[in-house]
């Protein structure tokens, strides 16, 4: 099946490069290329593409404002392709929080504009084409009464010692919703989000600015304290935990696990081993199955385990895999997950 792509890019040179390189992929067809948001809006409306690649800095409406309009009016998988994303700045984090599936950097080399590995962009487009958004205006499904947490706040004795979260495609948007519901004095929380390391600092900054707890990148041997959320740096190191009386972050180099480095499975397995039943594991939207086995390990140790439901996932792959293993004790919409993590189960 051919993946139909619309390119929105103000630079004629970059439009030509994108069209030329993507046209060499046998399963990708560039059906149109627009120079600005107004042209892009018309092309998306008329051609209904599978994926849109979108520049950020354009005349008239900029790419981020246009992205917000797309996600409100005609949700479509969007990949940001822009020089503005190269240094991992806040533009990238905002794009991901608005619902962009991924971000791809273009760079200046020699006399002309070139892309980094164009094969990676093609693979991003293939992955993005599999994303399915809930229909606009569709309400989140009701959570079965048996799975709704009571409103009673957990006592200190019942409070989890640590929370571990895994996410991938669509995860930055989901994390912003989830962490906005976290209390400022939440238990120490660790996150593995599948993201390029150049974008991780910006994601941490954006989440920190918009959520009650302090959110930062994890560092080796960093003590894990209440009111703090620690995001994996996204480089070639797995994130786990160590310690007994007091906990600390562990970052170690290694091979990919479940296809990823860092891996959610590694984080969850480490939490299962060190914290056991005193932990909460949360698996959010993402492609593939990373985190499913680790969440099962946490469940088998008695931890509370939660998976995001299909209706509110950008991609249901990771939660689906965990549910099929029986690893998720609760399945809930993204807006209800914090209530399950911080309240007594019914």
Automatic annotation (TrEMBL):
<dbReference type="GO" id="GO:0008984">
    <property type="term" value="F:protein-glutamate methylesterase activity"/>
</dbReference>
<comment type="function">
    <text>Involved in chemotaxis. Part of a chemotaxis signal transduction system that modulates chemotaxis in response to various stimuli. Catalyzes the demethylation of specific methylglutamate residues introduced into the chemoreceptors (methyl-accepting chemotaxis proteins or MCP) by CheR. Also mediates the irreversible deamidation of specific glutamine residues to glutamic acid.</text>
</comment>
<keyword id="KW-0963">Cytoplasm</keyword>
<feature type="domain" description="Response regulatory">
    <location>
        <begin position="4"/>
        <end position="121"/>
    </location>
</feature>
<keyword id="KW-0378">Hydrolase</keyword>
<feature type="active site">
    <location>
        <position position="290"/>
    </location>
</feature>
<dbReference type="InterPro" id="IPR035909">
    <property type="entry name" value="CheB_C"/>
</dbReference>
<dbReference type="Pfam" id="PF01339">
    <property type="entry name" value="CheB_methylest"/>
</dbReference>
<keyword id="KW-0597">Phosphoprotein</keyword>
<dbReference type="InterPro" id="IPR000673">
    <property type="entry name" value="Sig_transdc_resp-reg_Me-estase"/>
</dbReference>
<feature type="active site">
    <location>
        <position position="194"/>
    </location>
</feature>
<feature type="modified residue" description="4-aspartylphosphate">
    <location>
        <position position="55"/>
    </location>
</feature>
<protein>
    <recommendedName>
        <fullName>Protein-glutamate methylesterase/protein-glutamine glutaminase</fullName>
        <ecNumber>3.1.1.61</ecNumber>
        <ecNumber>3.5.1.44</ecNumber>
    </recommendedName>
</protein>
<comment type="similarity">
    <text>Belongs to the CheB family.</text>
</comment>
<feature type="domain" description="CheB-type methylesterase">
    <location>
        <begin position="156"/>
        <end position="346"/>
    </location>
</feature>
<keyword id="KW-0145">Chemotaxis</keyword>
<dbReference type="InterPro" id="IPR001789">
    <property type="entry name" value="Sig_transdc_resp-reg_receiver"/>
</dbReference>
<feature type="active site">
    <location>
        <position position="168"/>
    </location>
</feature>
<dbReference type="InterPro" id="IPR008248">
    <property type="entry name" value="CheB-like"/>
</dbReference>
<dbReference type="InterPro" id="IPR011006">
    <property type="entry name" value="CheY-like_superfamily"/>
</dbReference>
<dbReference type="Pfam" id="PF00072">
    <property type="entry name" value="Response_reg"/>
</dbReference>
């Amino acid at each position: 099946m051919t993946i139909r792509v619309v390119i929105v890019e103000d630079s004629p040179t970059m439009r030509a490069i994108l069209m030329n390189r993507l046209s060499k992929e046998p399963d990708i067809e560039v059906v149109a290329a627009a120079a600005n948001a107004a042209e892009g809006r018309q092309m998306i409306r008329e051609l209904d593409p599978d994926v849109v690649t979108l520049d950020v800095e354009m005349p008239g409406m900029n790419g981020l404002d246009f992205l917000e309009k797309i996600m409100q009016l005609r949700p479509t998988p969007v990949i940001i392709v822009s020089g503005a994303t190269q240094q991992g700045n806040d533009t990238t984090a905002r794009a991901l929080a608005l619902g962009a599936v991924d971000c791809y950097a273009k760079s200046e080399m020699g006399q002309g504009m070139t892309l980094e590995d164009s094969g990676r962009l093609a693979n991003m487009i293939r992955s993005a084409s599999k994303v399915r958004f809930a229909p606009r205006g569709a309400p989140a499904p009701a959570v079965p009464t048996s799975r709704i947490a009571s409103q009673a706040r957990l006592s200190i004795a019942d409070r989890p010692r640590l929370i571990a979260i895994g996410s991938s495609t669509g995860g930055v948007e989901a994390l912003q919703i989830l962490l906005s519901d976290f209390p400022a004095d939440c238990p120490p929380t660790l996150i593995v989000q599948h993201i390029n390391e150049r974008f991780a600092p910006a994601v941490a900054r954006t989440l920190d600015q918009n959520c009650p707890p302090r959110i930062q990148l994890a560092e080796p041997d960093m003590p894990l304290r209440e009111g703090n959320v620690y995001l994996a740096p996204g480089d070639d190191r797995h994130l786990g935990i160590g310690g007994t009386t007091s906990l600390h972050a562990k970052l170690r180099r290694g091979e990919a696990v479940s296809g990823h480095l860092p891996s959610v499975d590694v984080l969850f397995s480490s939490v299962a081993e060190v914290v056991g039943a005193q932990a909460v594991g949360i698996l959010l939207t993402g492609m593939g199955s990373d985190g499913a086995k680790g969440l099962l390990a946490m469940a088998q140790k008695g931890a509370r385990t939660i998976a995001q439901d299909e209706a509110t996932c950008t991609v249901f792959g990771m939660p689906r895999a965990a549910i099929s293993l029986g690893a998720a004790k609760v399945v809930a919409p993204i807006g209800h997950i914090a209530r399950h993590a911080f309240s007594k189960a019914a």
